[in-house]
Every structure is written in C-alpha cells, then in structure tokens.
Predict the structure of proton-translocating NAD(P)(+) transhydrogenase.
Amino acid sequence: MRIGVPRESSPSETRVAATPSTVPQLLKLGYDVVVERGAGERADFPDTAYAEAGASFGTSQEVWASDVVLSCNPPTDDELALMSPGATLVSMLSPALHPEVAERYADAGISALSLDAVPRISRAQSLDVLSSMANIAGYRAVIEAAQAYGGMFTGQVTAAGKVPPAQVFVVGAGVAGLAAIGIAGSMGAQVRAFDVRPEVGEQIESMGATFVEVGAVDTTVSSDGYAKEMSADQAELAARMYAEESRNADIVITTAQIRGKAAPILLTAEMIAAMKPGSVIVDMAASTGGNTALTRADEKVVTDNGVTIIGWTDLAGRLPRQASQLFGTNLVNLLKLVTPAKDGQLVLDFDDEVVRSMTVTRKGAVTWPPPPVKVS
Ligand code: NAD
C-alpha cells in the first residue's frame, strides 16, 4: 500500500505527519511513501531530506489518493473528495467532541482513525499523539508566558536589591500541566498547582512545586483514563481557591480538560479583574472554549486591569521540528500496530482495543462511539 503525506493546507499549521527520520520506518513496514513537495518546509525538513530518506513526491491530488493518508489536521472537503473509497485516513478528527464528523467519513467510503481517540492505557502510550503534543505545548506555554511577562522567573539577590521569584499557578496537572510545572520550576519560579485528582499531588510535589488542596474531591477517573467532571460542591470550594491563587500569581497556566467536553470555565471575569497588572494567563484549553471567561482562541487579550490572556491553540506547532518528529514517531508506532505482517498491508483488528477505540469509520461504516476501555 502507498502512504501519502500531504503538505498541511491550514496556513497556521507548521507540522508535518512524517519526517525524514520516520519515512524509513514506514518503508520498513512494507509501505511506499509519497510526500507532497514542501510538506516539511515549515518544520525545517527540506524535500531533499525526504528524497534521501526514500520517499517519492506527488501532487496534492496524488498524495490524497493514496491508500493511507497521514495528516495532522482533518481534510478539507476538497481534500476528502480526493480520497478513494476503501482508503484509510489517520488524523486528529475530534469525534468525541463532534460525533457528527463520523458521517462525513462514512459518506466518503473510507476508514477513519482518530489520533485523539487513542485510549490512555499503558499499551497505547507510544502512539498517544495527544500526550506528546501536550508535553511540548506545556513547555511552550511557559515560554509564551515568560515572553509576555515583564519580569524574571528566578529570584535574585543583587547589590541593588532583591528580586522575588515569579509566582506561577498551574491548573490541571496532566501531561501539559506537569510539563509546565517542570519548566517553570527549572526557570526559577515558585510553582503552585491544583488538580481535581488528588493522586497527582505526589507528582506535583516531587517536581518541587506546591500542591494546592481544596478539601474532599472526587478521586475517580473515567474508564478511558481522563478526569470526570466535578460536583457542584467541589466546584464552589475550588472557585474560592482559584480566586485566591490567581490574585497572588504572576503567571497562571490553565490546562483543565474533561475529555470530549467543552473546557470547564474556572477563572471568572471577576477573578481576572482582581489579578495584578502585568500578570499573564496562558489558557491551554482555548481550543475547547477555554478555562477562563475571557479567553479567545488564537488571540492575545489584554484586560483593562493589564492582565494578558494568551489563547494560542497551536503551542506544539510553535516548536514544529520536534512536534513533527514526535507526531511522526507516534504514527510509526500506530502503523506497526496495524501492519502485523510488516507487508505494507493495513489491517484494522477490532479485537485490539486500541485500534477499536480510535476507529471512527471502517470501510464507510460508522463505528463510533467505541465500547469503553478499562484503564491499565
Ligand atoms: P490531561 O487530561 O492529561 O490533563 C488535564 C488535567 O486537568 C487532568 O489532570 C485533570 O484531572 C485536570 N482537570 C480536569 N478538570 C479540572 C478542574 N475542573 N480543575 C482542575 N483540574 C482539572 O490533558 P493534557 O493532555 O495535559 O492537555 C491539557 C489541555 O491542553 C487540554 O485542554 C488540551 O486540549 C490542551 N492542549 C493545548 C494545546 C495548545 O496548543 N493550546 C496543545 C496541546 C494540548
């Protein structure tokens, strides 16, 4: 079978789904690889490097007409129309948030695998694009915050006086939150963090940050390894804590998400109005509505009281080389799973819970939603 790797058509997308170092691994699995010219340009991977890696080149039409298409973003209508019935699309399709997308791929007669539907179980870690992108994005969120914040992160004692360390508050200590905690701490900030899952307290503390607690909270996670929603009582206790933490913080990084739902709004306009002038919020949940009442996706908002709220939804893409490399490696791991004979033939084995979970349509039939998966 032939794998096609398009140049992403979204002008804001910098990443590419295969790199010169993942192409040979795809070839080793028995596939031919055809790359659209310029596909890796925005991530600093020139065509010459793909050619050396063994890829061939094709037009956008040829790439989208491949047996298997790997892309970072879902296809536009024009791109989808180029796919042949029976072909397989691997991309970020968001079926949990928008189940109606399944019909789109069913109508095209294709098999559609959604990378954002990989269950968070140990066996699937190596192909979990959401985790690898969240890790990079958490790093980048701190860099964005540092740039917007007019101060040093680290405290200093100088002949001209003392500079206190920046106070950073991180909301949600999943993959992105833990990455942000680590980086902010290593830059010298004093970091405090909250999560509805108390079991992450140990991880937060082991990174040298302070775990903020708000009394009894639900310790359960849903069967796919993601957090569940808070009860009304827990939310009220948490709201008081958010008001206090945000008032004292120089930088707030929010990462709270409940999978498949709009992001919970945790910081109200009132809380933000009480924050210090010059303080910065990086809201990583901007693409699903944001964790603050004032976040606007892909915008930088400066409030009347001088608080900057950054809502970039492309944080991983702001480090395009490494993001593409990890994305591409996750895809190689997925292809290893669905190419058991290493013969270039993709097989969707529904007895495999990872494959089953991420399949939205199979040969034109809607298979979404999948049965729940047990966390391991
Ligand atoms: P994750 O599921 O690993 O972590 C989310 C954490 O939030 C969990 O630990 C969960 O317990 C916690 N949480 C849920 N509800 C909460 C609440 N009400 N209060 C406090 N904590 C709560 O997710 P992740 O992979 O770390 O991603 C985090 C967010 O970052 C997601 O919204 C994701 O879409 C986003 N993200 C953004 C970018 C970007 O460019 N902006 C890139 C990658 C990921």
Observations:
- The CA atoms of residues 103 and 174 lie 32 Å apart.
- The first strand starts at residue 2 and ends at 5.
- The pocket of nicotinamide-adenine-dinucleotide is lined by residues 130-131, 133-134, 137, 171-177, 194-197, 226-227, 230, 255-258, 263-264, 266, 284-288, 312-316 (CB under 6 Å).
